[in-house]
Amino acid sequence: MALVDIIMPQMGESIAEGTLSKWLKKVGDEVKRDEPIFEISTDKVDAEIPAPSAGIISEIIVKEGETVAVQTVVARLETDKAKGAAKSESAEAQKPESAAAPGAAASSAVAASGAGAPPKVQSTPAAATATHPSPAGASGSARGNGNSFEDRVRTRSSPLVRKIAAEHGLDIAALQGSGIAGRVTKKDILGFIESGAAPSRMVSMHAPGGADVPHGPMPQPWPGDRVEPMSKMRALISDHMVASRRTSAHVTSFMEIDLTRVARIRSRKRAEFEAATGQKLTYLPFIIASVVKGIQAFPIMNSSVAGRDIIYRKPINIGVAVALDWGLIVPVIKNAEDLSLAGITKSLNDLAARARAKKLSPEEVQDGTFTITNPGVFGSLMGAPIINQPQVAILGIGAIEKRAKVLTGSDGEDTIAIRTCAYFSISFDHRIIDGAIADQFLAFVKKTLEEYPESGV
Predict the structure, then answer these.
(1) Who contacts 329 (Cβ-Cβ below 8 Å, separation ≥6)?
(2) What is the pLDDT of residue 200?
(3) 335 near 89, Cβ under 8 Å?
(4) Are the C-beta atoms of residues 62 and 20 closer than 8 Å to each other?
(5) CA-closest candidate to residue 157, choices 171, 143, 138, 169
(6) Which is it for the CA torsion 410, 256, 447, 310, positive or negative?
(7) What is the DSSP string of 217-277?
(8) Is-cis flag, bond preceding 390, omega within 30?
(9) Chain segment 70-109, per-residue pLDDT in tens
(10) Which of helix, strand or coil describes residue 99?
(11) What does the pLDDT read at residue 157?
């Protein structure tokens, strides 16, 4: 029998650590090659990690809930296949040179299929305590550029942290964070900004004198209360939402949109469309296609704020919020401006299905330029969603339902008719988007949907 190390994979170049959220197997269980054996959470996605080969789980080293550096051995697998190769790979993995670069790809033997953060998914970095183990050889000398492992990890923070640092004129390399090897997390940099301190005064958020300062009194549990820690994803969502509120000047406008024409087109074309494409046709692809046209007419809706500069994004990458049993994730339809209604439908259905199955890769929840959220599927009439940073706008869709509406005929007479309607909301960053522009954008989307061409399906 040979032992094969199972390691914490690197789910993206900027990710230096991950949380082992759940073991799907236990010691003594027999597993097949590529069978999921544990789940991880990073600052990008949740993912199921497959077994590198067939065998029996002989040892579990990292417990559920622990956050460890990438390349850390989390378990060992007994296998009688490729004994010599397994020993050789295990020996190589223990060499300082093999783990010195945090940007190196994870071992192909444990390449993950990817899944939901939240995302921040969300692009929201997670904090790690100083007790978490670091990769083998992490303290060894650096390769190539003369910097230590700690220096490279600290400066290789998440895109959100780098964006916040750029907006406030901060040098990440001058800050000491709470992540592995002093990596600066979003929590660290926001705490530093709020403190108003000079960069040289920044200390670890987990070091003596560097504890978080709560806003308002900390609630205490009462007798009979149940207290449980936030999940990794919930904590990341929490941080990301608070950061967005602090960053953007939120304003929300609402309009009622008549979707009767879209409903009729969908009813007439659905069977033909599904037969031709194999895809279920919902209202959302029509809405996404109309939003893309609206963005092309009002490019400011597809931008980001960088200090005193406005970055107008060339691609239109539409993020669509997907509610999961364990949180929320926003997979991204890339280059939606190049897709037909059928292409949007196929991409949307595929991303949503794989988000729920935890099969998304980190790249599929990154680089969104505009987000759509659809609380209407749960019956909500309208809402004021929080902007998904670093974007500047988010569209909310209320429940689509039949309502009695007053219509004026060509002869000027008013009649009451049954129409299929929904309330749409647009939350926008008032730092760069005026109310008039946001309302014109939403009015454009409204007109496009209410006059949607049947030939567009």
Answers:
(1) 45, 46, 116, 117, 118, 119, 121, 122, 233, 321, 322, 355, 360, 365
(2) 38
(3) no
(4) yes
(5) 171
(6) positive
(7) PPP-PPTT----PPPHHHHHHHHHHHHHHHHS-EEEEEEEEE-HHHHHHHHHHHHHHHHHH
(8) yes
(9) 888 999 988 875 444 444 444 444 444 333 333 333 333 3
(10) helix
(11) 61
Sign of CA dihedral 383, 387, 392, 393: negative
Beta bridge partners of 414: 408
The mean pLDDT value of the chain amounts to 78
CA distance 241 to 330: 13
pTM summary value? 0.61
What span, in angstroms and rounded, lies between the C-alpha atoms of 189 and 186?
A: 5
Q: Which residues, 6 or more positions from 135, have their beta carbon under 8 angstroms from its beta carbon? A: 69, 70, 71, 72, 99, 102, 149
| Block residue for tokens 């809405």 | 287
User: 249-456 — its CATH code?
Assistant: 3.30.559.10
CA nearest neighbour of 306 among 123, 185, 162 = 162
Domain spans, the chain: 1-216+230-247, 249-456
By residue count, the chain amounts to: 457
366 close to 389: Cβ distance less than 8 angstroms: no
Residue range 28-47: mean pLDDT, rounded: 81
**Per-residue pLDDT averaged across 227-238, rounded?**
84
- By CB neighbour count within 10 A (0-12 exposed, 13-18 middle, 19+ buried), where does 276 fall? exposed
Q: Which residues pair with 402 in a beta bridge?
A: 420
Q: What is the pLDDT of residue 273?
A: 93
pLDDT at 410: 86
Percent of the chain with pLDDT over 70: 72
CA angle 108/95/5 to nearest 5° reads 45
β-pair partners for 418: 404
Q: How high is the pLDDT of residue 382?
A: 94
Q: How many CA atoms lie within 13 A of 372 on its CB side?
A: 27
Return the active site residues.
430, 434
CB 150 within 8 A of CB 181: yes
Q: Please tell me the distance from the alpha carbon of residue 294 to that of residue 20, in angstroms, as a whole number.
A: 42
pLDDT at 203 over 80: no
Residue whose entry in the numeric block shows the structure tokens 């544990």: 38
Contact 305, 291 (CB under 8 A): no
What residue type is 74 in one-letter code?
V
112-159 pLDDT, tens digit each? 333 333 333 333 333 332 333 333 333 333 333 444 444 444 455 666
- CA dist 45 and 66 (Å) reads 16
Give residue-wise pLDDT tens across range 371-386.
Answer: 999 999 999 999 999 9
Task: Give dist(CA 164, CA 183) in Å, integer.
Answer: 15
Judge whether residue 291 has pLDDT over 70: yes
Residue type at 179?
G
